Amino acid sequence: MSDLVSENLNMVFTSPKGETVHAIQNLNFVLKKGELLTVLGPSGCGKTTLLNITAGFLRPTSGKITLGGKEINGPGLERGMVFQQGALFEWLTVADNVNFGLRMKKEDPKKIAEKVEEWLEIVGLQGFGNTPTYQLSGGMQQRIALARCLINDPDLILMDEPLGALDALTREKMQSLVLKIWKETGKTIVLITHSVEEALLLGQKLYVMAPRPGRLHKEYQLPFAKMGLSTDLRQIKNEKEFVKKREEILTMIWNMEEEIMGKDI
Amino acid sequence: MLTGLFIILLIIILIATIVYGKRLIKIEKIDAVFGNPERSKGGYHWIIAGSCSILLLWFYFSWDVARSFFPNSANELCQVAKVRDSLVSIKYVFPIEQKTLKSSDFIKRENRNIELLNNQIKQSSIANKDKDKLIFLLVETQSLIKILSDEKYLNPEIKNKVLGVANQIDSLSKNIQNKNYPEFDSLSSEEKIAIKKQGFWGETGAEVPFYPNTKFGLKFDAASKELNKIVEQFFLIKNNSEVFEKKSKELDSVIENYRDTLAESQEVETQFAREVSKIYGRVTRSNIFPANVLDPVEQSVVRFEEVQKKEQGSLKIIDTLLFPGGTVVASGQTCSEQGSGRWLPKPTDTLKEFLHLLDPNQGYKNVPLFWYEMMGINKVVDFILPDWIADLVPGKYPVHNNEGKVISNFKSNVLDIVTGNFELFSIPVPSGHIWDSFLRVFLGLTLGILCGVPLGLFMGLSRFAAGYFDPLIELYRPVPPLAWAPLIITVFGIDNSGKIFLLFIVSFAIMVISARAGASGTQLSKIHAAHSLGASHWQILKEVIFPNSLPEILTGIRVAIGVCWGTLVAAEFLAGTTGIGFVENVARKYMQYEVIWITIFVMGLLGLLFDIGMRKIINKTIPWRGKG
Predict the structure, then answer these.
(1) In chain A, which residues have their Cβ closer than 8 Å to the Cβ of B550?
(2) Are strands A36-40 and A62-67 parallel, antiparallel or unpaired?
(3) Are residues A105 and A199 in the same domain?
(4) Which chain A residue has its CA at the smallest distance from B537's CA?
(5) pLDDT, tens digit, for every residue of B367-417?
(6) A171 and A221 together in one domain
(7) What's the total number of domains in chain A?
């Protein structure tokens, strides 16, 4: 099975001043195929580092992450990534952005065109194929980024605060879209976020990470993602269980932040 | 006349656009807030107004307005200048344009000289006997000034002579107010022929026709001739009374005698004696008159000036209004344009000269400005195909046979083709000064882009390249391009290759730096995205890094065009036989102001065209710039 397994993962940076920063310390977890994991934590807890190591952009100082038993060593097609700002290629049209991965593989142009149509429909951007990306709104751009990643059919999807820069309304729509895609494709997804609500809503599994050194603080198994597939997201947000969990985690993170920054008045 | 109409048209358009613009400001209230950038948009009518203003200023300051509306004015002003010139010497004697009477000025100066010398002699260490003698001589010399200044000693004839001159000037003043003046034939037969031969203002090489073309001019010409004679008479009057003659002769011999007695060892005394002798000489030559003796002449000259100015009438107004920055009158007898009309060619002349240069049979220095010439296709083939292609063909080049003939084979036929040794048809290729300059910039720039962009990208991506090539680029980049010129001309010669190489190194540095900035400015997330989408290194370079650096590269090209163009013109100044800079340099040598301005316009226009072209390309290729 293509599970994502982290074994004794350590990542140590040396800052320009010569201090060593333990970004990740002895991180161990197993993520089963088809699970949706959200990672939450105060800034500096190593969320993004973890994601970058998983994507293969960084090499861990020690330990390893394996996907389906294979150690991750450099970026690869089986791990797609969605970035915070989309990281679209603004000189290309929507279609050319979406089919970028396929073009790099030099697939048959006819097949490419079909797949692009299909995916544009899934993310709700039919007919925008020839539009330059810079003319689209932030939410649309994020949909393209999603389609661009998914068209390659990766085993694992990594999302680095993909909805962080969107307004509240668009954000909610996109959250539903993520859930819909998760349900329809059955992909393993790792999603990093700052928003406790988002982490609770989308995460089948939720890791709260603590900073200095970056480590796993608490692990939750949540029902809300499954509920979200059939129920309205706003309704879920008002459920007692949801509110209770939200307050619990918020307090946890606040305490962590206070530990670092000192108490504010 | 056509010019005049055009000028009137320009004025009408200018006024119309200003009125239109004013009204538009009143109507448009949407962008009423000061500082709103929208307020600077549109406004094509102001472009027209600006162009009209420039043209009008050009017409005005080059005196083309004066020439098109008053074609004879310069010639008439020239005659006025002659009158002015005739009076200059006589006016110099009197406090008319000067502050003091010339005689008074002289006496003041010489009195001071005498006093200074007197003190020097007294304080010197020479023998008392010599001191006394020298001071005596000085006092005697000063007494000469007294004699000259005293009306008592004045020769009574002189007063009559002075009055005679004054009367002549006065009668001339009266005559020129007469409509029929001159009633005599003031022109010599040579002058009459010359008048027929001379053209109008600006028609011939001479700037302003010298001889009077109009009746008005004839009046001033005749007056100046009469004045010349009167002035001659005036300067013949000498203040040489008997007392003065006698005394000065005596003093002269005394001074000379004293100088003879001085021994060679008496250096100081000899020096003083020489100084005294100099003052004596200046006084005897001075032609000083008692203060009020010359008054009649002064008054008559002032009266004449008034009359003369009145007679100029409207010409005086034309002179002040339509000859800005100078006048023809200032040139005196030479009758040339003195002021902006001299170095600023008239638009009409410039256009004429430009059309002349455009004529492919004329051109400049036997090379047309911009034309085409027929070039055999064989030369093109020779240039494009390298000769070694023939060597690759199997077999051997033919040798001559028993009959002493060389029979060509396939290999030699191929050689004939690649070396251009055949005749087929000709194609037109552009040629001329402008094309040569353009081609140099184009080739230098293209080479710079082709070499600079890959190196720049490489330097932006690789630590090795950034470090390894940095010293080379950064050391030669700050050197002013022309500083390379002497070296490059020595190595490559003054032909195209040298200039192209110069432009190449100029554009190369710019392109390297801009491509490098573009490559190193690529967002990491985009590169990460491309990696995780399965792109290879080459694909990332081609599909992500290169397009991402395009804005910087294109801006670099835009900068490089400007710098190359500037460098080229300067390089053509230094050496070469064609090109727009060459034309300007030659025109400078021959003071062909029209040609100089034409080259300046051509350069400005070409620069503008290049820039507009680049802007169009930039808008077409990178509309996404800054929107990622």
Answers:
(1) 91
(2) unpaired
(3) no
(4) A104
(5) 888 888 888 888 888 888 888 888 888 888 888 888 888 888 888 888 888
(6) yes
(7) 2
Among A49, A90, A146, the residue to mutate for chain B (most B Cβ within 10 A): A90
Residue of chain B with shortest Cα separation from A138: B628
Contact A77 B534 (CB under 8 A): yes
Together in a domain, A134 and A170: no
Q: Which domain holds residue A204?
A: 4-78+154-261
Contact B532 A132 (CB under 8 A): no
CB B507 within 8 A of CB B442: no
Name every chain A residue with its beta carbon within 8 A of the beta carbon of B539: 104
Residue where a domain stops, chosen among A98, A118, A153: A153
Q: How far apart are CA B557 and CA B616, in angstroms?
A: 13
Cα B40 to Cα B20, B36, B103, B172, B608: the distances in Å are 16, 8, 67, 64, 21
Q: Give pLDDT tens digits for B134-180.
A: 999 999 999 999 988 888 888 888 889 999 999 999 999 999 998 88
pLDDT in tens, A252-263: 888 887 777 665
Tell me the residue type at B198: Q
**CATH code of A63's domain:** 3.40.50.300
Statement to judge: residues A249 and A162 lie in one domain: yes
Q: Does one domain contain both A161 and A90?
A: no
The answer to whether A89 contacts B543, with C-beta atoms less than 8 Å apart, is: yes
| Residues belonging to chain B with any Cβ–Cβ distance to chain A shorter than 8 Å | 523, 525-526, 528-536, 539, 543-544, 547-548, 550, 622-624, 627-628
Helix (H) / strand (E) containing B293? none
Only one residue has tokens 């070694």, namely B388
**What are the start-end ranges of the H helices in B493-592?**
496-520, 524-532, 537-540, 546-574, 580-589
Pair (A223, A235) in one structural domain: yes
Give the separation between CA B10 and CA B57, rounded to whole angstroms: 11
Regarding pTM above 0.80, the answer is no
Is B544 in Cβ contact with A75 (below 8 Å)? Answer: no
Burial class (CB in 10 A: 0-12, 13-18, 19+), B310: exposed
Look at residues A126, A153, A180 and tell me which one is the last residue of a structural domain: A153
